[in-house]
Specification:
The chain has helices at about 15-20, 35-40, 55-60, 80, 95-110, 115-120, 150-160, 185-190, 210-215, 235-245, 285-300, and strands at about 5-10, 25-30, 45-50, 65-70, 85-90, 140-145, 165, 180, 195-200, 220-225, 245-250, 270-275. By secondary structure, the chain is an alpha/beta fold. The strands form two sheets. It has a seven-stranded parallel beta sheet with strand order 8-7-6-9-10-11-12, with helices on both faces. The chain binds glyoxylic acid.
Length: about 325
């Protein structure tokens, strides 16, 4: 089979070598440049990348398969792709370590008020009252989305003595999680969560899922951590809840609009930790993403079913 594989991601030479070694003789081209991606699209049979723009898909007349190096594929489910027979696979499952470490990091920051301490340090201010921290032990962590990442967060939170509950589409039990609810158990999870972590994919069912009503169900003084997708939480309602003090703090890695616009009120709230969509990214990212693609490439060449095939109806 003569295939052209277009790698549209910032990978290292060792990753391209791994792809070439998996499929010797196939043409493997690499670019992270948008203009070059457009130029190479017409001959591509397979595209590997995070953000493959609609124009690239439109031009890629031979395209048979896109493998997303991201776990969430909401940014790929546009009409140009949905109207075609193109296979779509994701990198779901590779983010558990970095994302769970990130969540535990911001969870400890919020609880120990380290985000406030850093601001005080910058102002050379010594004030013990404003940075007296709390303890995680005995608190309830609610995780919306108990996939690979949610489970890794649960395991780590248990080490701090937290009680973990959460939602999962099937409602089936998950290790380290005391009680798993199906999605319609959301209100119950909210009522009990001292800390709410959102790790859901963005789909028609989750867009805007957490609004003013849902935030009001959280216990007073709760924290919210969003590492899923920004549009799952209604940002204006979140700002209101933070300003009113109903929520004690938030750590946000994802936003309705990215980059977060300079005029966003979130920048000015001292009780908010903002990170620029980096919670899953470490130097080891492609060392996990590319072997998964290579395994799928082997399967593709053999005509076997692929791993992580995206259900277009469900959106992940
Ligand atoms: C990043 O946000 C991803 O979905 O992998």
């Amino acid at each position: 089979m003569s295939l052209h594989i277009l790698v549209a991601a910032d990978v290292e030479p060792r990753h391209l070598e791994a792809i070439r070694a998996t499929a010797p003789g196939l043409a493997v081209e690499h670019t992270a440049d948008r203009a070059r991606l457009l130029a190479l699209a017409p001959t591509a049979d397979v595209i590997v990348g995070w953000n493959v723009p609609p124009e690239v898909v439109r031009r890629a007349e031979r395209l048979r398969w896109i493998h997303s190096t991201a776990a969430g594929v909401d940014q790929l489910l546009f009409p140009e792709l949905l109207q075609r027979e193109v296979l779509l696979t994701s990198s779901s499952g590779i983010h558990a370590e970095p994302l769970s470490e990130h969540v535990l990091g911001v969870l400890l920051m919020l609880s120990r008020r380290l985000h406030i301490a850093v601001r005080q340090q910058l102002a050379r201010r010594w004030d013990r009252r404003t940075v007296l921290g709390d303890e995680l032990g005995g608190k309830t962590l609610g995780i919306l989305g108990l996939g690979a990442i949610g489970r890794a967060i649960a395991e780590r939170a248990r080490v701090f003595g937290m009680r973990v509950i959460g939602t999962r589409r099937s409602g089936a039990p998950v290790p380290h999680v005391e009680q798993v609810f199906p999605p319609d158990g959301l209100d119950e999870v909210l009522r009990r969560s001292d800390v709410l972590v959102v790790v859901l994919p963005l789909t028609p069912a989750t867009r805007g899922l957490i609004g003013a009503r849902e935030l009001a169900l959280l216990p007073p003084g709760a924290f919210l951590i969003n590492v899923g997708r920004g549009a799952i939480v209604q940002e204006a309602a979140l700002v209101d809840a933070l300003r009113a003090g109903r929520l004690a703090g938030a750590a946000l890695d994802v936003f309705e609009q990215e980059p977060l616009p300079p005029e966003s009120p979130l920048w000015d709230l001292p009780q908010v930790i903002i990170t620029p969509h980096v919670s899953g990214t470490t130097p080891r990212y492609y060392d996990r993403a590319i072997p998964l693609f290579c395994e799928n490439l082997r399967r593709f060449l053999r005509g076997d079913p692929l791993l992580n095939v995206v259900d277009r109806e469900r959106g992940y």
